[in-house]
Amino acid sequence: MSQAPTLAFIGAGNMAQAIIKGLLQQGYDAKQIIATGRTASKLAVLAADTGIGTSMDNQAACQQADIIILAVKPQMMQTTISQLASAIEPQRHLIISLAAGILANTITGWIGSDCATVRCMPNTPALVGMGASGLYANGQVSDRQKAMAEQIMQAVGISIWLPEETLIDAVTAVSGSGPAYYFLMMEAMIAGAEKLGLDQQQAKALVLQTALGAATMAQHSDQSPAQLRVAVTSPKGTTEQALRSFAESDYQATIANAMGAAYQRSQELAKLFT
Fold it and tell me: Could you give phi then psi for residue 130, rounded to 5 degrees?
């Protein structure tokens, strides 16, 4: 990024650190990044590892920044924003919130002005540079600011823009919670493989590589996942028998119901902060 804006990460937990390291790997100037936290020793380690600036003063960090990334837990957001609100300049700052369940209007209400605000729903694979994020911008966000927010989140994976804020709840149900669905599938397959006689190490190696291979094929193929499934399913073969068992258990409905439950809970959590 040429003429890179100064970024202030309010909160220096795992997700903030993943984004910071992703940006640095892409060539972002460490001198243009500040991170704040409550533990001096942890900040010192982060500064030594990355070369970025660190501070325990949220207001001072915001005053130096063009973009403020709120990376604190949802239950800490109101207190954090109230403490730094006086340092936020609506005509200058872009706010990016990584907190689940807190609406853009709630954030601007706590700030006390209609500040340009982007909500982001990332997921944990961002920690290994393979994240999937949903982004929503309020009416104050310019095209240039949208581009900057997108570049920041693409440092740790892909990102998509949502036309309506309510779709953040759908992203939560799909990619926000989604890694756990796949982890559960891996768990079940490893356990199943062990029952069939493989040892744990063999089972884990085969299951994880199979998951990675299937995802990579789906990403690089012109065919849909449904078409790829059909292609690997020989008539009267082993895969067909496994899929028939899934169908008898209404596997697809189980997945849809689980995602619906996650979606509903995301909506409920949003109401707690309004």
Answer: -125, 35
Q: Is residue 74 a contact partner of residue 246, using CB atoms and an 8 Å limit?
A: no
Of 104, 106, 71, 95, nearest to 146 by C-alpha is 95
For residue 28, the one-letter residue type is Y
pLDDT digits (tens, 9 = 90+) for 208-259: 999 999 999 999 999 999 999 999 999 999 999 999 999 999 999 999 999 9
CA distances from 254 to 123, 178, 227, 249, 250 (A): 22, 14, 21, 8, 6
> What CATH number does domain 7-165 carry, 3.40.50.720, 3.30.365.10, 3.10.450.350, 3.90.420.10?
3.40.50.720
pLDDT tens per residue across span 41-86: 999 999 999 999 999 999 999 999 999 999 999 999 999 999 999 9
Total-model pTM = 0.92
The domain locations on the chain are 7-165, 178-270
**What's the count of helices (H) and strands (E) in the chain, helices before strands?**
12, 8
In degrees to the nearest 10, what's the CA dihedral of 218, 224, 226, 230?
Answer: -80
Buried (b) or exposed (e) across 172-190, using 16+ Cβ within 10 A? Answer: bbbbbbbeeeeeeebeebb
